[in-house]
Amino acid sequence: MSLLILMVLSCFCVVFLNKKDQVVAVINCFGVWSAFSLTYWGGSGVSWESLSELFCVDIYSSSLISLTLWVCGISIMVSSALVNLRGTFNLFWVLVTLLAFMLVQCFMVNTLAMFYVLFESTLVPMISIIGIWGGQFERVPSIQYIAAYTVGGSFPLLLVFTAMELHSGSSFMWFICSKMDFNWIFWTACFLGFLIKLPAYPFHTWLPKAHVQAPVGGSVILAGILLKLGGYGITRLMMLFSYTLESFGIFVIVLSLYGSVYGAVMCIRQSDVKKLIAFSSVPHMAFPVIGLFSCTEVGLVGAYIMLVSHGFISSGLFVLCGISSELVHSRKIKAMNEGVRAIPSLGFIWLVMIMANLGVPPCPVIISEVLSVVSAIALWPWVFVPLALYFVLSGVYSFSLYCQLTTSKVKHKTEVLFNEVTLKDMKAMYLLLYPLVEVLFKWDLWAMA
Fold first, then answer.
1. Which residues cross the membrane (predicted)?
2. C-alpha 324 chain-centroid distance
3. What is the domain range of residue 23?
């Protein structure tokens, strides 16, 4: 509760500053909020702490709160350095701050009814960001995709919450009900909206459209935070309804295995860097689905390592894509090659982020992948076959992207706008890399015991 009060008071003070000073003040505020959110981090396990009558936190929600505030601050920092952000920038940071405020409440509320309201409310600032600063041609179709998939997929969830309020008088999510025999229809109604939000295959088609049309700051928030709402919602419902391994979960795991291979193949076929990064989120989000629906402690830990690590890595890749595309005013790999080769430091950072995205040790992604594979093999040993195929294909598209960005057969002097690469861009990349080191040393934080 104190974090929300601090956010409101800080924003109230920022309003009275000059417009030039507001951006710096807001970025510093997000840094202070992120540091303050670390006070909510308790010991590992499922123990929770009540902050008020409306808010409760545990290690799963508090880690995502810190991720939210950190990534939103990076989004404002990066967007303030880009030259193609149309309109008033003050409106952009207001929308991002409003979105962060909603997301923090979403991870803190203790009733599923309020969680659903805030879950749907996050669409409004995101759609506004895409509509105002998105691409010129397909902004409206991408907004329609996001709204239709999110609202339509989560409508059955509204019916579940309504039935809980009518029959039991409460939708308090920290009470764990006794195990009951629910059918496929009930589990589909509970998990469909969250599987779409992740997104899990085959509900992923809205994601590339949204990422391509969104500005860099919007893509950073969308990949870094909004996708994680799906994993968090699945965790809460599994704890509430005492979900154990059932045929529904096995079916979802099979779809995720196929989706990981499909997503890697789609990444190989892309010539647009931003769309490639968007498609790479589909196989990465398959690992949290596999880990959570395996109903094992190993899978749970692996799922949250991937959720948090992917929030920083995917955000960093979108920031790099925005920096590189500003140099050549194109997102095509062949065109972006000139800008990356002209500035060697960009090539090195591309290498680091691609290796982190691939899961090269000691990146925490490799820990998540190993734990998810172990939890899946415990269900059925032959699961290793599609996962091994995915690992091969992910290596292909990752190294292919790096080689196409840094090498060229044509030798001529490249012409880029050097003034568009600023210290603020590089600072954002360093700030996204630092939390990965913390996750690497604290990977057992989400263990049950």
1. 59-83, 90-108, 114-134, 146-164, 184-203, 215-234, 240-264, 276-294, 300-321, 342-360, 380-403
2. 21
3. 1-445
